[in-house]
Amino acid sequence: MPPETEKILIVDDEPNIRMILSRHLSKVGYPCTLAENSQRAMDILETDPHALVITDIRMPGRDGVWLLQALKVKWPDTAVLMITALDDSQIAINCLKLGAYDYLIKPLHLEEVTLATQSALEKRRLVLENKQYQEDLEAKVVERTAKLQDALAELEINYDHTLEALVAALDAREHETGNHSKRVAQYALLLSDPFEMSNLDRLDIYRGAFLHDIGKIGVSDKILLKPGKLTAEEWTEMQRHPSIGFNILKQIGFLDGALKTVVSHHERFDGKGYPKGLRGQEIPLGARIFSVADAFDTMTTDRPYRKALTYPASRDEILRCSGSQFDPKVVEAFLKITERDWLECQRAGRDPHAKK
Fold first, then answer.
1. Domain parsing of the chain, residue ranges
2. For the chain, N or C: smaller number of CB within 10 Å?
3. Residue 260 CB neighbours (<10 A)
4. Is the distance from CB of 52 to CB of 81 less than 8 angstroms?
5. CATH number, domain 8-137, options 3.40.50.720, 3.30.420.40, 2.40.110.10, 3.40.50.2300
């Protein structure tokens, strides 16, 4: 027996044909509804969906071709069989191209009607099952993608926490005051705001600034903590730390964008920096932003050899070095940020993962 939901709508302007088809298909087990024209069929379907519509092609007013096209627009999952006279067979074939499942040629043979009906409904079932399968599959893909993204985000946060602990230990080793790396990262994040870039680019700059000195892990305490002036050999060794940092972090995929800042954070706008002596726009923007943020933090923090400079004095020094040590555009952005904003950034910090 066919499913009870597989109702059939028979559309024909000839009452006898409607009645013959309805009686026969009802005996086979299909509930049938009758309509004398296309408009009546549409009215019925508005409130009572049917699995299959069997419609004559030639009818007064809107014919079966019009009905077929209307059905495919409004109820595309409804199967359609066309009834045609022998001389309209080419029209029936064209109907197949428009989405009809099959056509029946008058005079109708009831066994052929049964077979065509069963075939059309079976084909419809398969189409609906495949459609449901695709929808379920897409839903699973969306769900699993979301879970994967959540897992990656959690892994990334765990990585960040590990790196924070590592950088804190490095700051302590070098006797940096008050989490220098964290402050510089926050300053760089604030200083990146005036520049047009994506949230991911800002996060990369933050991470690059935070991890800028990670390469000092590879520098001996004898050099790193030496109170006096470094020898030429020692200075050469110290200048390796950006490259060491790059090599340490390059295996961590989500830090790819941060590497540009790490390896270039000691470059100068005038080309007199290291390790590559990059000049001007050759230096990644993140490194140019970092350079100003780092200098500002260094000047406004107490050091063993001097007291912190005032904000106006630090501001003047950064302006003086515009075009030599610093990118003038970054300096211009720095000067537009008020002292109050810098102090607020230092005190409260910002979430580098948050959207601007």
1. 8-137, 174-348
2. N
3. 18
4. yes
5. 3.40.50.2300
